[in-house]
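On to my pick:
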Amino acid sequence: MGDAGSAALPTGRVALLFSDIERSTALLNRLGPAYGDLLDQHDEILRRTFAQRGGHEFSNEGDSFGAAFADPADAAQAALEVQERVARHAWPSGEQVRVRMGLHYGEPKVRGNDYWGEDVHFAARICSAAHGGQVVVSAAMRAGLGADAAVSLGHHGLKDFPTPRELFQLVSPGHPPEHFPAPTTLSTFHNNLPSIAAPLIGRDGVVAELSEMLTTGRRLVTVIGPGGMGKTRLAVAVGERLATEFADGVAYVALSPVDADHAPAALAEATGAPLGGDPLLAAREHLRHRRMLVVLDNCEHLVDAAATLALDLLEHCPDVAVLATAQVPLGLFEETLHRLEPLTSGGGSDGAGGSAIEMLVARSQARDSAFSVGAHGADRASVERLCALLEGLPLAIELASARIRVFGVERLVAALERDVDALGSAGRDMPARQQSLRAALDWTLSLLTTTEQDVFAAFAAFAESWSIEQAEGLFDGELDELAVWDALSRLIDASLVLVKGDGRFAMPERVRRHAVELLAASPLEDRRRRRHAEVVGQEMRELTLTAHVDYRRMLANIADLLPEVLQALHWTRDTGDHRHLIGLTAPGLAKLGRLAVVAEAIPDLVIDDEARGYDDAAVAFAEGLLHGMRWSTDSDAEVTTFERAARGYLAFGDVREAVIAGHRAAGALEAADQVGAALDRMDEMEPLVDLIADPRWREEWERRGATFFELDAAGLEHRRRVLARWGVGTGTYSVGHSYNEAMIAGLSGDPTAALALSEQALREVPRQQLNLTLDHVKCVAWLLAETGRGEPAVELHAAIDAVYRARTGAGHGDVMPEFTRAFAEAEQRLGDEAAAAAQARGAALSYSDLVDRALQYATGGVKA
């Protein structure tokens, strides 16, 4: 290295540079003896550059170099110049040489002409993380160069340095950073732990204890305690601490939003197991050879299912540990229980529970940095009294801290002491968790305004969740939208309402139960539930009308709305609002195959003369749907009913619903083999479609009209022209296009092609649409019968009827006489015994199994 190499190594803080050639072994194998010439040229470039920048070589082994610089800027410049010279050098045999480099600024120890110590090892590990042509530097090195000298590569663990540290890529001045793959560091840990902003307070000892258990042979540890004790926050903290202890990371499984049937799927998704098939088996195979910590959070509502998951992991995945949280033990032999105690009310962190005061102060200061205790701050005795009343429950402390900034500690204490009877009103036989939660809710509600308390109770009218528009509708005529927003924001701040990931709002279940009690005791309950019924009924009505423009979106939205509709129907069952609500919701219920929930009430609500208002027209329409659901053989009555509904809607001024009712009447005519009359009825509604003034309705109307055809050349040509002009769209027709194609092919004498189209149709139709899906399955069954596969045809036919009868109370009729003939002939060919066996197999199938079986039969995947 010349003079620079012979001079004494710099001491104190120095910049350490390590480098080596990427894929040097491959170069050696390709070049053979010529590799020595390449090394000589490589060494000359590095040594000349180091010398020019005041570098001191202290290590050289093979293609690896170590050099030290007194000035970090010289080290950085030397690294960049080496990369530039290596890149433009003409190497032997036209080879391309790429050098990776790492820089760290530290205080290595000197031993003769070499360095030693942690800084040396760290600099070498940084070099090993780089790619050829890249210079990776430590945070200390970047600090010595300036913020603009390097760009962050994120935090990474290095061999012997597993705690993630931030690494940076050195950038040439005036040039954008070159793109490289992610640094070659320790494997990226799988970690889906939720981000919780609030710090964990008073639980350090518990975190350490649980971490030791899980890394020293305790493969199942269950943290138990009452609701609101902070079990989830504790489990997340343990997962964060152990993220680098388990080679494959930590998987967090949130069980609170799932039921027992979906718990295996939640486990599979959280652990990254492949989708499809049995989720428990998929998770087991995925984790069989992995070392991972699995957190099963909130197991109390499905203890048996959670215990099954944990036991399966213990038995089949020897390197997986499980941390569970629940209010009760899972009851497994290998389970180690840890009972999470309340935070202590004293001022110190002594005791297993930690300090309630410490948490109260920290959370209050997070909301108001000026909050303090003693001197000129809050009275310490009042703070201690408040923590005692809160019973060391972290949820209660969190709620209290949200109110201290506005009301102060002493008013909170006074509020709780005024409600002392309420705190004990549940009785000594009630679980402690309910008493603690009730206390937290009671004092929080006592600090809300009268309007906010009313809004809180009113939200209990919703069965599951609500949108901001539904919240506004609930108070239509009473509160303007800003007042609703303000109240809702206050409830969110108080942790009484949660913001869901889909932008909707909900209450934690235990909080919602409390709200239901308050609503039941309120003189406004009837008004609130009537408004809820009107809001969800009108929304269901509007959503159903969007079938013409976006069928799949409509179907998904009404499926989400179904719990609210069912609750509203239950509430209005004995009121005058029931007829109105049925009229609003019957079309949507029919789309989901749930019309049976109101079927018994409809006949008593029908009037025989002309509709006098919207409700009369809507109930007439519901009666027509009931005819269709039960496959009435009285086609004239069905047509008459829908025509009466159409006239009523039109008199009321709702053109869209009048058009839909008229289309239903035309459909009933076509089903009765009166195609000409059906086409005439469609023509009569053309002016009404124009009145809607929505081009999407016009397009969908023409598509629908194309399905009313005679099976002749003229009819098929008309349909072809319509589709060529408009395509299949996104409305109702879009999910029936392949089905129509299959029907045409089957009726035209090509059942083999029709079966392929029918299979495609069945894959396209949304399964929550019961009626359409079963129609598609029946088409498959018919085509199987037509192609001589009698047993699967009879099996599917029986399954369709069994599923439909279970959902609606009625049998599933055949839409065409060709169907009835084909199934009768198939049964006859099989004989009584074989036909009965096939029918029994079909009757035993669930809805989901029926659809899957139909798909398998259509593709030839299953033999009867």
Observations:
- Residues 448-517 form a domain with the Arc Repressor Mutant, subunit A fold (CATH 1.10.10.10).
- The radius of gyration is 36 Å.
- The first helix runs from residue 3 to 6.
- The mean pLDDT is 85.
